[in-house]
């Protein structure tokens, strides 16, 4: 079927715009599992390659978890050769067990990055679809997330390029049929032991009964969330830079409390990131604890005789962030310091007790309750304390 067919032409337009958004890469690694999504992506990019002056390399990562996987790898290589495209492949050594999908994803990404580096590719194209985006967003929301989680996967997040993120999975199968491209169905994609598959097979069908275009609606939500996250992150970046004192080791917290909470907490995350904290693993409770302390500091400084005691959070062995009268400081901690937050944690089957008293003040035009100050009997004085 010629590329002028409306279905193919529309998809080509999406892919072309995606390439523009990524800065028009000249060498592109295309990840292909042999399934409909990635096979359609290879076919579309091949149709555009000459007009876009685009060199393509097809990459296949065999997880080595099924007997059929070696045959599928060979089929991907043959299909690439039939189009005159070079291909590369590798086979992973993964052991079944807990966390296999996450481990496979990380190993696959590492292999693709290695291929891209070895072949001087500008970007790595992935075949994620609108259905994948909807599944990811729903899983993030079910587990609990903020704007970043609702943004799910970005269309372009160097080096990852996702040209098909606006197409539902059914569309990629139709594209393969239109272009005469054979593909395989991975049986693990029907294994309802996996949370993503349960979302795909149970949750999304129910939502489609409510809205037949639910994938498009959720993709739109992810786009709006990504736009909002980008704006807030930019605001936080400017606020952090404006408060920085010296070589990124001290920050003023004057008037930090008047910023919207969404900006304030992002400023604090940036500071923790500069301290070497793993932001992916950093618990939200740590940032919330620092934020409460910043608000309590502002409230206590409003008194005439406030006495503030430094407050410390360990980010990683050897580094901590400290809040005192002068602001926030990144400093070295004792070797082997435990990565923790100075906050109470209650685990199932255990009881935790925390004795505090509270003050009430106003920040950013609203009343707040701050359970971080132990007040003396003398009116207007207090000791800043966790």
Task: Please provide a written account of the structure.
With 386 residues, this protein is α/β, with parallel strands linked by helices. It has helices at 6-21, 36-49, 69-82, 100-118, 130-143, 147-150, 169-179, 195-210, 214-243, 261-274, 284-301, and strands at 27-31, 55-62, 87-91, 123-125, 156-157, 160-161, 244-245, 250-251, 307-308, 311-316, 319-324, 327-332, 359-363, 366-370, 373-375, 382-384. The protein has two domains: 6-219, HUPs (Rossmann fold); 246-384, no CATH class. The protein has a six-stranded mixed β-sheet with strand order 3-2-1-4-6-5, with helices on both faces. Strands 7-8-12-11-10 form a five-stranded antiparallel β-sheet. A three-stranded mixed β-sheet has the order 9-16-15, covered by helices on one side. Helix 2 (36-49) links the parallel strand 1 (27-31) and strand 2. Helix 1 (6-21) packs across helix 2 and helix 5 packs across helix 8 (195-210). The longest helix has 30 residues, at 214-243. It is elongated and about 75 Å long. Mean pLDDT is 84; it is low at 333-386. Keywords: ATP-binding, Cytoplasm, Ligase, Nucleotide-binding, tRNA processing.
